[in-house]
Amino acid sequence: MLVHSSARRLLVSRGGGSGSGSFFPFAAAANACSRRALAPVSASAMSYRGGGGGRRGGGGGPNSQRGRGRGGGGAGRGGGGGGRGGGGRGEQRWWDPQWRAERLRQMAGEVEKVDENEWWNKIRQLREGSQQELVVKRNFGRDGQNILADMAQRQGLYLSFDAFFRISNLHLEADKFHFHYPVFNLGEDSNVYNKGKTIVFSKVPLPDYRADLDERHGSTQQEIRMSNETERRVESLLAKAKSNSNDSASTSTLTTRQSRPSTSSSVTESTKDIDKERLSSELRDIQNSRKMMPSARSMQSFRDKLPAFKMREEFLKAVAANQVLVISGETGCGKTTQLPQFILEEEIDNLRGADCSIICTQPRRISAISVAARVASERGEELGDTVGYQIRLESKRSAQTRLLFCTTGVLLRRLGFTFPVTELFLEDILEKTRYKINSERDNFQGNSRRKRLASVKSDPISDAFEDVDIYKEYGNYSVATRQSLEAWSATELNLSLVEGTIEYICRHEGEGAILVFLTGWDEISKLLDKIKGNNLLGNSNRFLVIPLHGSMPTVNQREIFDRPPANMRKIVLATNIAESSITIDDVVYVIDCGKAKETSYDALNKLACLLPSWISKASAHQRRGRAGRVQPGACYRLYPKVIYDAMPQFQLPEILRTPLQELCLTIKSLQLGAVASFLAKALQPPDPLSVNNAIELLKTVGALDDVEELTSLGRHLCTLPLDPNIGKMLLIGSVFQCLDPALTIAAALAYRNPFVLPIDRKEEADAVKRSFAGDSCSDHIALVKAFEAWKEARRSGRERSFCWENFLSPMTLQMMDDMRNQFFDLLSDIGFVSKTRGLKAYNYYGKDLEMVCAVLCAGLYPNVVQCKRRGKRTAFYTKDVGKVDIHPSSVNAGIHQFPLPYLVYSEKVKTASIYVRDSTNISDYALLLFGGSLSESKTGEGIEMLGGYLHFSAPRRIIELIQRLRGELDKLLQRKIEEPALDIFSEGKGVVAAAVELLHSQNVHH
């Protein structure tokens, strides 16, 4: 229920056990917060005046500079133009009323009228025929487009039009067809559907951008220039390589691996049975002896009080009778710690311990560690004996381990091998992951009593607020309470409010730890700073403030479970990592901001983003349950009840909101059949378009063939716990002797960027990052240089000061170092490298930036950006979404002109704009030799890639030379993939040398 509050008091409902929640109207703490006034925008505020200018245009006025930005400023008294419209220098002068009126008259004369009967019949023919879409390149104006939109929606079709207002996928119910839905004014910068000159009717949803309909930027023609000297040298190296290859074929044969002589097992089946009986007996004796220990008896008395213990016998009977069992219980009832123990104890007591193997998945690393430690403690044994854990880069287990707690990723990697598992617990499957339990009969035998969960609205908060009258909801409250609610912002988390709530608890409430739920590390670090500067909370003798974040080392994460000294209160600042599985026993108070960072995926536009969003009611319930484990507790929810009522019941499963290429590759590696048909059997199947996007990407990367079967490259990628693009980059790096930088880049992209960008010193941090990048125009090279400098500083004992001076995270760098070692071991396991030879043996070109950039291109393709010069600046375009921007954190963000025509990037993310993260400037030769497959252009005058989006023209002999060299590189790479032990530098030294020669002919990185 919503709790009333006066301006000076906080009232929260109390409860014992798992705690009880309340909605906190922020009266006391919010008094310190600034209130925001929402005022309508007047017409005058949108006009252009001297000195004003548009968002990207320079200001005008008497002293303004001329022509800054896209719009440019008008000179003298002409005033500033806005956006691309331009100022007072000529062409467009929208600020001039006379010019504007004349231009509008011209535009009105160019507009065609819509013949409604004709277009109604055309739309009906499209709907009833076999054609998928109808493309119309005619100017009907805004009114005509609205008429066509009405016709399209009445006949159940999708329509995309008008670059000024992006109204894609207009497919609404007849009674909901109103234009008061949110529409974003993107201005003339939008490239959607040829600037409004093209209208598309379609039977399927339409993306925001179509390269094939963009006449200006939908494709590019790049002329390849090659000097006569470079052409001669490449021809010579290729000819020499061919000669050496022929000589090698006639004089030598491939060496075959000597298979080890097969030996028959000296242990008979009867001996194995005797050994199992002996081991089972030993396990039972040890278990019985431990039960008699005083500490174990004390722990058993605690276990007997848990709700799960009352269901022990019923649970064991259900396990024996069913293959699949779904169990639901309140927080703290013992699901995680007791149920696996019940099975383990039962198996050992019945002399089946030798054959017992139980795996229990946990959603996060810290959960696996903490739960395993708790269960081992309850059993009176050391962690790693019969109970252990395994997470990425860390494990505590032994040959005696019968109950293993692990993360989902570890489990899926083990599924690729043959291993016996008697029981499998999927912990928190509703809270976690894309790896949902799938079909009833195809994957399990026996009974299963599961219900399909209803899907939820994608944006329930927006829907709820469309018709909510805040004043009606809270009209009965006091003026002070209403003012507090009006001061609250639904879009931004007010950390002063959180700080005030913590201070209120510390001043007015009893003892007990405080758990604060925030969305990410940025908020945690900002709140830490606020607490340090607080007169009360900044006293380190009275308050122990501990951050809890998934990126922290496990040693630091364990500190949250320790009780503080007497007269000291513990305050834990956490993300949603503390929502499930982790139990901090001494937490009495929970502060819930109501949000968490959640990944979403736009399948139509192939865009992913990670933004704070409202949690579900189930998550809110979980957070409340963290309070009051050992005494009555309280939960402070820093959002109104109207928000809670609009929350979905459950979080949208990860399988519905993330790219699926890694999952699809796992499905193929486990030989589970066609990806689409397998995923269609999930409890909540993903969008078929998302599945298709993943399959198409895997085909482009080369992991799947045209019939959706794993290629040789795909089988190797399955062994690497990496995104397929990053995994491919790692393999190519090992093949072409750039392994050291490839390992560093792969670790950073798979984990996190080691650079820290403090708010108060952002300019300094950016400058340091650019200094590492040098003139490479590459975020990836900056990563490599920073990591190498860190290793040197560590060797000389300057690690701490080096990281502080260069805005680097030592924890992240250490994790990257560990991951590099893991990746090298995995490459050794599949035969691509030899541990005995060491890393240096595979790093001949590790310092050659042209080769490193080419390897990056091979891995990150098809993530390619065109760099098009626009005067003194550069505009950026991609095939999928059109115009993009460089992310502000990139070393390339401040560069106006690039020496080379393309960028490759690691990730494309949509926030206020569409940004590309972690980019590297590359040459057309890198793209031609290491990018996607080449094909003859439709005109026959060049070659193209990326479905015709990228065109390359050159004299015929140059085209043929590039195609020949690319063919030789592909053959060499294919041989290496099929025969990992092949020494590529003895077999194809000339081919690689020819590629290096060509890459260096466009050398700009040295």
From TrEMBL:
Residue ranges for the region (Disordered) are 45-95, 236-284
GO cellular component entries: nucleus
Compositional bias per record (Low complexity), positions renumbered to this chain: 238-269
Gene3D superfamilies to which the protein is assigned, alphabetical: 1.20.120.1080, P-loop containing nucleotide triphosphate hydrolases
InterPro entries documented for this protein: DEAD-box_helicase_OB_fold, HA2_WH, Helicase-assoc_dom, Helicase_ATP-bd, Helicase_C-like, P-loop_NTPase, RNA_hel_CTD
Instruction: Print the keywords alphabetically.
Output: ATP-binding, Helicase, Hydrolase, Nucleotide-binding
| GO terms, molecular function | ATP binding; helicase activity; hydrolase activity; RNA binding
Q: Where is the Helicase ATP-binding domain?
A: 316-491
Helicase C-terminal domain: residues covered: 500-671
* PANTHER family with a match to the protein in the record: ATP-DEPENDENT DNA_RNA HELICASE DHX36, ATP-DEPENDENT RNA HELICASE
User: Which family is annotated?
Assistant: Belongs to the DExH box helicase family.
Protein name, entry field: ATP-dependent RNA helicase DHX36
Which species does this protein come from? Oryza sativa subsp. indica (Rice)
Taxonomy of the source species: Eukaryota, Viridiplantae, Streptophyta, Embryophyta, Tracheophyta
